[in-house]
Amino acid sequence: MRFEDFRIGDRFESPGLTMTEGAIIDFALQFDPQAFHLDAEAAKDSIYGGLIASGIHTIAATFRLCLMTGVLTNNLGSPGFDELRWLLPVRPGDTIRAVAEVLETRPHRSRADRGMVRMKIATLNQRNEIVQTIVCNLMIKKEGARI
Question: Which of 57, 73, 82, 147 is the most buried (most CB within 10 A)?
Answer without folding.
Answer: 57
